Amino acid sequence: MSGPHKEITIYDIAEALSLSPATVSRGLKDHPAIRKDTRKRILDKAREMGYQQNMFASNLRRARTNTIGVIVPRLNSYFMSVVIAGMEKVANAAGYNLIISQSAESMKKEETNVRTLYNSRVDGLLVSVAYDSDSLSHFNLFLDKSIPLIFFDRVLDHPQCTSIVIDNYKAAYEVTTHLIRQGSTRIVHVTAQSKGAVYADRLRGYRQALRDNDLAFDESLVLAGNLSEQAGAEAARAILAMSPLPDGVFSANDSCAVSCLRALKQAGISIPGQIAVAGFNNDPVSKVVEPNLTTVNYPGEEMGELAASTLIRRLDRLEGASLNTIVLRHELVVRDSTLRKKP
Amino acid sequence: MSGPHKEITIYDIAEALSLSPATVSRGLKDHPAIRKDTRKRILDKAREMGYQQNMFASNLRRARTNTIGVIVPRLNSYFMSVVIAGMEKVANAAGYNLIISQSAESMKKEETNVRTLYNSRVDGLLVSVAYDSDSLSHFNLFLDKSIPLIFFDRVLDHPQCTSIVIDNYKAAYEVTTHLIRQGSTRIVHVTAQSKGAVYADRLRGYRQALRDNDLAFDESLVLAGNLSEQAGAEAARAILAMSPLPDGVFSANDSCAVSCLRALKQAGISIPGQIAVAGFNNDPVSKVVEPNLTTVNYPGEEMGELAASTLIRRLDRLEGASLNTIVLRHELVVRDSTLRKKP
DNA sequence: GAAGATAATGCAACCGATTGCATTTAATTA
DNA sequence: TAATTAAATGCAATCGGTTGCATTATCTTC
């Protein structure tokens, strides 16, 4: 069957109850100027007739959509899916929908996404930027109109925008220090060729840890790629070609660290004996690879929840744009891939 | 700054060009009854004034949203994130947005999601159902109005709905047969307590393979849980308590298989020597665990792309609701966790 | 019970794009 | 050049809630 199946509108309800559409509209909300029993009659009748509110009419009039736009580099990573799960939970509970789009690590695509979401009139934006996003200009559509914009994980700095991050500098410092304590002195750092602050911060943490332990920073030990599995394998190849062989690897994410670790192992290197390996993110694979991977854990789901709830509070005018940065806790998770001396 | 920041409408453009809003509206599309140069003038002026179409007004009038609703059990699994990545790619390219929600494996939540998405007037729905969804009644809102509804991966059967699946029966049959060929005779099957067809099909495949190889089906070897990591560990405990010890495990997903495998290993069982273990999904962890996990690979991204493109073709009236089921290819990926005899 | 205050409801304009039909303009033909 | 046809544009209603203001019903108070 198909048929036109007339939608029920407030006009239908109004007619059925001999009321005006205006009263019905107000009754459906909790407008103070509506008598309790009238309100009840309206709600009952609405339920009885199977009324469903037409969001467009409402959105058109109120110029709000109860929709949040999300832009992420890629959807297909475990970490990101957990973050989004957290966002969805909070948003859904608060009556918001999520529209999600991927930038595929391209600033150009990111720009397109921004435009699309703007046209969809999302009430606010949650963004984790692409590797090559170095400026904010493509967000002007939102910034100029003061439509709330919140960055998470991979952030850009702007006075109007809240950022939700972890202390990447400190975390990287801790990882590197840990490697050094375990006896590593020539530590390779596998990172991203990115213009964003996240990877720069991790690099800074790595360098500072070296410096604080009187180890020289060696440019040639920094391998910048795209942190994919493939990049991990390539990093391993590069490492194996180095002489003398490094004795530590700190990769800026886990999937890359794991593929690097496995490639090294396959080449006959003992982990952590000859080379200790550490990652970042606490991806499920880190617990499975042998030896288990030392990594940095940080709460993805919480990050998503926090991003969404911060945005929603601002949208609901419960909070201004005062807070600029929220730093989530992180923790170094030490596992066998770096553990040479048992405590 | 905030200010009202007057939005540009087609009325503004019309006024600026001394045209009627109707002409502008048509000019912005490619309506045949608009002169080429008029159209160009309109487009130029629109660009110049920074016009952005108001979707609500348009949606309200056309009763279409160019938005697709997606309901999945959980967002935070690798497989699902890959599927959604595929959907987003196709949808975005075709000018559609995705609104995503999670059922958290609960039919009740699923029902709420359906209602929300209905209210958001999505043009169609892509659904992978929760474990405990056994009926279709909560989709009636869509079915009654013939709003396209497509199931993927975890599907329910309905004449109006296309389903996109793999041949779960066959895949499970292949896995089980493979285990038998490798010498297993007492094979545990770890599955979900689910009302859906997917897991029932896999169980059927498992049973048929046993039968075809003259092995008795033993109810007590079927462990139904929720296929979580925890369930895998529990399954391992149950297995270790069995006497005689089983010599094969076929888990209906990888993360469960992996945690089971690791727990068995930790208990001193040799894999695949004493117990061969196989999973399902080809999750990244399956390539990392040692020994690498034998599993079934099937194309998540393609599944997502196909679900989205099928839906969109139907929405754009390029295609009727003729095809009922699309079966994607799958393949048995044999790895060391089951390999006893080298060929 | 009338006057004034308060609560409850209704009126009607609006949000901005779309579209059937009418009208104007341009092109073609006689 | 007038008449006919085709092409281009405009008019005005419509989609379904929302909301400022006006109106009516109800309640106080003297």
From TrEMBL, chains A, B:
GO terms for molecular function: DNA-binding transcription factor activity; transcription cis-regulatory region binding. Residues 8-62 form the HTH lacI-type domain. Keywords: DNA-binding, Transcription, Transcription regulation. It comes from the Bacteria. The keyword DNA-binding applies. The keyword Nucleotide-binding does not apply. CDD domains: HTH_LacI, PBP1_LacI_sugar_binding-like. Pfam families: LacI, Peripla_BP_3. InterPro entries: HTH_LacI, LacI/GalR-like_sensor, Lambda_DNA-bd_dom_sf, Peripla_BP_I. This is LacI family transcriptional regulator. It comes from Dawidia soli.
